[in-house]
Write a structure and sequence with these properties.
- The complex is a heterodimer of chains A (909) and B (282).
- Chain A has 21 helices and 33 strands.
- In chain A, helix 9 (370-381) crosses helix 10 and helix 14 (537-544) runs antiparallel to helix 15 (564-570).
- Chain A has 909 residues and is α+β, with helices and mostly antiparallel strands.
- The relative contact order of chain A is 0.11.
- Chain A is globular and about 80 Å long.
- In chain A, the strands form eight sheets. Chain A has a seven-stranded mixed β-sheet.
- Chain A folds into four domains: 1-163, Ubiquitin-like (UB roll), CATH 3.10.20.30; 197-292 and 345-434, Aldehyde Oxidoreductase, domain 4; 511-607 and 764-908, Aldehyde Oxidoreductase, domain 4, CATH 3.30.365; 614-748, Aldehyde Oxidoreductase, domain 4.
- Chain B is an alpha+beta fold.
- Chain B is 29% helix and 25% strand.
- Chain B contains eleven helices and 14 strands.
- Classes of the chains: A alpha+beta (909), B alpha+beta (282).
- At the A-B interface, strand 4, helix 4 and helix 21 of A face helix 2, helix 5 and helix 11 of B.
- Chain B: Keywords: FAD, Flavoprotein, Oxidoreductase.
- Chain B: It holds the Pfam family CO_deh_flav_C.
- Chain B: This is Xanthine dehydrogenase family protein subunit M.
- Chain B: InterPro entries: CO_DH_flav_C, CO_DH_flav_C_dom_sf, Diverse_Substr_Oxidored, FAD-bd_PCMH, FAD-bd_PCMH-like_sf, FAD-bd_PCMH_sub1, FAD-bd_PCMH_sub2, Mopterin_DH_FAD-bd.
């Protein structure tokens, strides 16, 4: 279709662009007008990230033909602030309503549209207006609060900067916050060079197949816009990758054979101007389908020749005499639970571009793990690691899946082969088909107590569908047996796990690495045991909670910092109130039945029994700037801010004095991956160590004691001690090779030990703990569940930033709600965000957070990890509450209306 | 070479339709998701320049909803209570963003079994107006939608309006949508009910259920069973209904068995909404 001249008013300015009439307005804004604040999450109206105001009304720009916008006024996020941020933008910052920030522009526009028509909306009106925008990080509650607080003529004062020495424990505006609300933040797809080639990935439409490539030379010459076609034979290095090198088994481009739907087989590099008219369906390839298996119990032969019975890894933790002791149990509960594939559904699909800088390949992309990306990409492309530089962009959610490489080797190969920049942003379908998922689990367990209600033995057996390739399957298989007891004293125990290959999508890391699945099994049996014992369900858990001095199921004696009982006890008044409310709600024979559930979590922070170091560098420049080289990728959770807060207090300077140098393999030392709830704990500890080391160097130079105070002003460092005062002219000092006058770089690696053949040892240096109460109403005729309230008590050791901690809790709960009630990825059937459902703003109830602080001796300022813990208790507490409401336990999640109603019918038989 | 045209009058559009195959485009909310990132290979007839197709008007005998009328337009229009079900459905179509651009006629032409607009329109006995260079015709909505993604529209025809007979625009109505989450959700099932009540008895009943068959269906047997009965008896009569018109399938949203149970319940809920205090007196 030939182009039209389209005239638009954009943020108050008249603009003329030439575009095909049916080009999506979102693409015109981003590609032609360079307004990349409008985000693309699905290109189908399912996520609302591209919401703009068209003549004042919110629309999805991805569904608006450019020609339809002709003559209209368009407002984008870039038009919300004048010289200063709007009250709504300030309110988003003040409330912590932006985490990763990818959905933030969509929310800001939808909310602006509402507030302009209705300056004083009710909460229900806010929900109705924002129901079309999905957020995967925040759990929505802070967004609702931010919009309500910005209503009317409220002006928002910026949160005060914490004073010197008071950064830890304060909740300043996140250091990377402003670009997230003004549209300037650059995510993976937001900074493509204008001359970059577009990379199109040809993928398998089959779950398992052989394929033959056709005449690629003829194909390429048929379209002058194609700059190159690349297949496995073009991959310079060893065509195998995987996050755990010993198990690396996945080709970046398949070699004549594919093991899952969505596997990449070839790349077409094409001029970006020709992309809209390019039909990937014409790629010359012949497929021969082969029988496939999507579940571990109907496997059709080996998916990898080297792995008999499709077993990737088995895990075991055994302690005491579980079988024998079980025989003496006064009460025993048995059960089975099945879980489904869960998709991470971050609103930002994987995206990035690669370009050569001399002989160095530079990959600018969203990620959770820059150093791992570098190493795997270098191996695939046969480059020395120092010739690959990974520059992480802002990452629009990760939750585990962006630990694995996706676009990196593909764009890297094209840039390397063509010498040109190469860009790729996955479509939503491509992202869902080809990247990792939460493992579906099929579990059975048995737990026994004595007559007084003490757990005496537990057995657990879990089969985890690990999909076509290894990814983090071994981690899941090893983590689950360590955690399947829950944070409860379980003296006799055996937990077996197995990660089994299928032709399903690759199962990898997803917030909790299998522990959320296992906890559903354990916590639902706990409710059954409490019932058999006639004990209150919360008190039963308190009785059995691990305490300081107890041994875990791996025989690790936890000397201090065990906060689970504190969490459960903090819930007591809420539990009593909730039970009381329930009694009132269930008077009479209504269709809606109230139920209350509780569940706990514990979670070891960092890698399981493996080295897990982080290195952080801090330098003082001759101009008097303090630069924190902070390589822990902030995927929205807040490491940029939290690690800076730790560094500020450890160094003894105000937070505002710290300048961030964020993750980049050329600029920041390796702070490991953003995973395993390790950044606050491990990288935070490295930051604390390196800030203290820097302080020590400065104090020694000034020859003062640790009681001295530091002050930096206009290139001079002043040191005060009592009446004494010493000023150092920084510009007069010699520079080190990095250009600093003072510099410290420290590494922290948490002390762990290997697990023996029975799984005994000290797998983690630190555990975090938590417990949640869910109150809900079940519609007993329709099987639908309406959440009423969630109360969450989490032991974070020390809340470095309470607002960010709350944000983690609320966001994790939202993902737990999704897992419990609606999320089920079916390969080939739910590859979009309207068949695959994640919670909307109307699905997350009020959440009351209780931050419990039982300090840990190991963590920085006593802090423990939190990021994954928070979603673990939610799903089991929901299932327990449904059972409490109806008498029916749903044994497969998600507990869809169909499954809930079937369970109710079954229970009443 | 694919063509694009943006006529400003219906006559101009019909002339184009008579000459070639065109894909009519209005709100585009189903067009782009179906297209994905494949190149557009159809001729596209953009209806968004035709002002006469948008808006709601009245004749002596009918309410007339122009084909380009958006779901937001429906919500904001002054219409009698018989349209309440349609307005409630309008608030449940996708999201506010979708409602601002998606059109009523587009919902019918897309012919999804889960189209939220269809059950309330069925209870209003609507007729779909189709125009072509050959002339104009109106057909009942039930005759227009033939199956999943199939309609009776001929290639040279354009849906120009939806006609609601005034004798069907009587009584009270309600809509109930059942989905697995609160917003932005494709229905597992939905029901629309319109009743005329006189002296506590049901004088007229129109009941339609969607997403439980390839095309949303009127529950004729149940309607017949209800007519003449005390309104207070409705719950028992609905509870006993067999609803043989429904032929649900198992899919990602729910099982067939569940849908049958739920259909009866949501029809009851819609009745219940009508009987809420204040409503009957209105």
């Amino acid at each position: 279709m030939s182009k039209l001249v389209i005239t638009l008013g954009v943020n108050g300015k008249d603009v003329r662009v030439e575009a095909p009439p049916l080009a999506r307005l979102s693409n015109v804004l981003r590609d032609e007008l360079h307004l990349t604040g409008t985000k693309l999450g699905c290109d189908a109206g399912d996520c609302g990230a591209c919401t703009v105001l068209l003549d004042g009304e919110p629309v999805c720009a991805c569904l608006v033909p450019a020609a339809s916008a002709n003559g209209c006024e368009v407002r984008t996020v870039e038009g919300l602030a004048n010289s200063r941020l709007s009250a709504l933008q300030e309110s988003f910052l003040a409330h912590g309503a932006a985490q990763c920030g990818i959905c933030t522009p969509g929310f800001l526009l939808a909310a602006s549209g509402l507030l302009e028509r209705n300056p004083h909306p009710s909460e229900a009106e806010v929900n109705d207006a924002l129901g079309g925008v999905l957020c995967r990080c925040t759990g929505y509650r802070k967004i609702v609060a931010a919009v309500l607080a910005a209503s009317g003529t409220n002006t928002q004062a910026r949160r005060a900067e914490p004073s010197n020495g008071a950064a830890v424990g304060a909740s300043p505006v996140r250091l990377d916050g402003v670009p997230k609300v003004n549209g300037r933040e650059k995510f993976g797809a937001d900074s493509f060079p204008s001359d970059a080639l577009a990379v199109v990935v040809i993928r398998s439409p089959h779950h398992q197949a052989r394929f033959k490539l056709g005449d690629l030379a003829a194909y390429q010459s048929s379209n002058p816009a194609i700059a190159g076609v690349f297949t496995a034979s073009d991959m310079p290095g060893e065509n195998r990758f995987g996050v755990i090198p010993a198990f690396a088994d996945q080709p970046a481009l398949a070699e004549n054979f594919v093991r899952f739907r969505g596997e990449a087989v070839a790349l077409v590099a094409i001029e970006r101007s020709a992309l809209a008219d390019f039909d990937a369906g014409a790629f010359p390839i012949e497929w021969e389908k082969i029988d496939h298996a999507l579940t571990p119990d109907c496997s059709n032969g080996a998916i990898h020749d080297s792995r008999p019975d499709n077993v990737l890894v088995r895990g075991l933790v055994e302690r005491g005499t579980p079988e024998e002791t079980m025989k003496s149990a006064a009460h025993i509960a048995n059960g089975t639970i099945e879980t489904s594939y869960v998709e991470h559904a971050y609103i930002e699909p994987e995206a990035g571009f690669a370009a050569m800088d001399g002989d160095t390949l530079v990959i600018t992309a969203c990620t959770q793990a820059p150093y791992m990306d570098r190493d795997d990409t270098a191996k695939l492309l046969d480059l020395p690691v120092e010739k690959v530089r990974i520059v992480p962009t802002a990452t629009g959610g990760g939750f585990g899946s962006k630990l694995d490489i996706s676009v990196q080797p593909l764009i890297g190969l094209v840039a390397l082969k063509t010498g040109r920049a190469a860009a790729l942003a996955y479509s939503r379908q491509e992202s869902m088909m080809s990247t990792t998922k939460r493992h579906p689990a099929s579990m059975k367990a048995q737990i026994g107590t004595d007559a007084s209600g003490r757990i005496i033995a537990m057995r657990f057996d879990g089969v985890f569908n690990t999909g076509a390739y290894s990814s983090w399957g071994p981690t899941v298989a090893n983590r689950v047996p360590v955690h399947a007891s829950g944070p409860y004293k379980t003296p006799n125990y055996r937990a077996n796990s197995a990660a089994i290959h299928t032709n399903g999508p690759v199962s990898g890391a997803f917030r909790g690495f299998g522990v959320p699945q296992a906890t559903i099994m354990q916590e639902t049996l706990y409710d059954e045991l409490a019932e058999k014992l006639g004990m209150d369900r919360l008190e039963f858990r308190i009785v059995n909670a691990l305490r300081n001095g107890d041994a875990t199921v791996t025989g690790h004696v936890l000397e201090s910092g065990v906060g689970i009982a504190d969490c459960l006890e903090a819930l007591r008044p809420h539990w009593a109130r909730a039970l009381d409310d329930r009694a009132k709600a269930n008077k009479g024979n209504g269709v809606m039945r109230r139920g209350i559930g509780v569940a706990s979590c514990w979670y070891g922070c960092g890698n399981t029994s493996l080295p897990n170091p982080s290195t952080i560098r801090i330098g003082v420049s001759p101009e008097g700037r303090i630069r924190l080289h902070q390589g822990a990728v902030d995927i929205g959770q807040g490491s940029n801010t939290v690690i800076a807060q730790i560094a500020a207090d450890a160094l003894g300077v105000p937070l505002s004095a710290i300048e961030l140098v964020s993750a980049d393999t050329a600029l920041t030392p390796d702070a490991g991956k953003t995973s395993a709830s390790r950044q606050t704990f491990v990288s935070g500890k490295a930051a604390e160590k390196s800030a203290r080391a820097l302080r020590e160097k400065i104090l020694r130079f000034a020859n003062v004691s640790d009681a001295a105070a530091l002050s930096l002003e206009s290139g001079c460092l002043t040191i005060f001690e009592g009446e004494a005062r010493r000023t150092i002219d920084l510009a007069a000092l010699p520079l080190d090779k990095l250009g600093y006058v003072f510099m410290a770089e420290e590494t922290y690696d948490p002390p762990t030990t290997a697990l023996d053949e029975k799984g005994q040892g000290r797998p983690y240096a630190v555990y975090g703990y938590g417990a949640q109460i869910v109150e809900l109403d079940v519609d007993t005729r329709l099987g639908t569940v309406k959440l009423v309230k969630i109360t969450a008590a989490h032991d974070v050791g020390k809340a470095i930033n309470p607002l960010l901690a709350e944000g983690q809790i609320e966001g994790g709960i939202a993902q737990g709600i999704g897992m419990a009630l609606m999320e089920e990825y079916l390969p080939g059937r739910t590859e979009n965000l309207h068949d695959y459902l994640i919670p909307t703003i109307g699905d997350v109830p009020p959440i009351e957070t209780i931050l419990v602080e039982v300090p840990d001796g190991e963590g920085p300022f006593g802090a423990k990890g939190l990021g994954e813990h928070v979603l673990i208790p939610t799903a089991p507490a929901i299932l327990n509450a449904i059972r409490h409401a109806t008498g029916a336990l749903v044994t497969k999640v998600p507990a869809t209306p169909t499954r809930v109603l079937a369970a109710i019918k079954e229970a009443s038989r | 070479m694919t063509r694009y045209a943006k006529p400003t009058t219906v006559d101009e559009a019909l002339a184009l339709l008579s000459q070639a195959d065109w894909r009519p485009l209005a709100g585009a909310t189903d067009f782009y998701p179906a297209q994905g990132n494949r190149p557009i290979r159809e001729n596209v007839l953009d209806l968004n320049g035709i002002a006469e197709l948008r808006g709601i008007s009245e004749t002596d005998s009918h309410f007339v909803i122009g084909a380009r009328t958006s779901w937001t337009d429906i919500q904001r229009a002054e219409l009698p209570p018989a349209f309440d079900a349609l307005k409630q459905a309008a608030r449940e179509v996708g999201s506010v963003q979708i409602q601002n651009t998606g059109t009523v006629a587009g919902n019918l032409c897309n012919a999804s079994p889960a189209a939220d607009g269809v059950p309330p329109l069925l209870t209003l006995n609507v007729e779909v107006e189709l125009r072509s260079m050959r002339g104009a015709q109106r057909m009942a909505l039930g005759d227009f939608i033939l199956g999943n993604r199939k309609t009776a529209r001929q290639v040279d025809e354009l849906v120009t309006a939806i006609y609601i007979p005034k004798d069907a625009a009587r009584g009270l109505s309600a809509f109930y949508k059942l989905g697995a989450r609160r917003y932005l959700v494709i229905s597992i099932a939905m029901a629309a009910v319109r009743v005329v009540i006189e002296g506590g008895r049901i004088r007229e009943a129109a009941i339609a259920v969607g997403a439980c068959s390839a095309v949303a269906q009127r529950m004729r047997a149940l309607e017949a069973a209800l007519i003449g009965q005390e309104f207070s008896q409705a719950e028992a009569i609905i509870g006993a209904a067999t609803m043989t018109e429904l032929t649900p399938i198992d899919d990602v949203r729910g099982s067939a068995e569940y849908r049958l149970d739920a259909a009866r319940e949501i029809v009851h809920r819609a009745f219940d909404a009508i009987s809420r205090p204040g409503k009957l007196a209105a």
